[in-house]
Amino acid sequence: MMTDVLVCAAGLGLSSLLGSGIGAVVRRIPHRWNDIFLGYCAGMMLAASLVCLIMPSVEMVPLSQCWQPLIGVVAGAALIAGLDYVTPHLHRLSGVAETEHHPDRLSANRVLLFVLAIALHKFPEGVATGISIDGTDSGTSYTLALAIALQNIPEGMVVVTPLIVIGVKAGRILVTSLSVAALEVAGVFAGYFLGDISALLLPALLGMAGGAMLYVISDEMIPETHAHGFEKPATYALIAGVMTMLLIEKLQL
N or C, which terminus of the chain has less Cβ within 10 Å? Predict the structure, then answer.
């Protein structure tokens, strides 16, 4: 099982670094393609949160104890809502227009807050993956990790682009990208060991991880994909992402 933890942690960390590398090279992509890709990732994460986390947590308990995963889902959503309250929203960060990233408009302190917001959102994503390794088979854990890894690519780009614009040195950008990736890797290990504390906690913990993902999808990803006039292709991409994840899960059964 530790092999699964290492594989998932490496996959999430490397996907984040891949996004940072793409951001350093491309720096800016059209809103249309950004929204389509984010919509596809949102669809995959939506299906993964339900199929890989929330449904297994419900199936672990009898009907009389379904309050456990329910409380977990509410707690997970509340956790991310709390993070959003103290950090800047990720809305309008991905694929931001050039005028919004102009140094005169975006102070260094604000950029650092943006990066902090992304980093804080990555830790619970890693935790969700780590918890799923305890509560499901390895194939399902890999499915969840794949959905999050795809979403890490545009987020990795978002970490790099504003730092480049305000003139942060390449060495510091590299350290920042590594730190953000490391935080998600740490989340995987934290989630795994947290889930290993007691099997009695697993239904609530899986529900909590699923609730956190649902909040991010609804509050961050979908609004971002609908903010630039490309909501139709983004919606089609979300549907495609859901079906892709369901197909992947079906092939593993």
Answer: C
Lowest mean pLDDT among 24-28, 104-108, 146-150: 104-108
CA 245, distance to chain mean position in Å, is 15
- Written as one letter, the residue type at 187 is G
**This model's pTM is above 0.90:** no
Residue 89 in this model has a pLDDT that exceeds 80: no
16 touches 178 (CB < 8 A)? no
For residues 100 and 158, the answer to whether their CB atoms sit within 8 Å is no
How far is Cα 173 from Cα 171, in angstroms, rounded to an integer?
A: 5
Six token digits for residue 119: 């980093």
Residue, of 198 and 164, whose pLDDT is higher: 164
| pLDDT for residue 199 | 60
Contact 195, 205 (CB under 8 A): yes
CB 16 within 8 A of CB 156: yes
| DSSP-H helix ranges across the chain | 2-26, 31-48, 55-59, 67-86, 108-135, 138-165, 170-195, 202-216, 222-225, 231-252
Instruction: Write out pLDDT tens, residues 135-147.
Output: 555 666 787 788 7
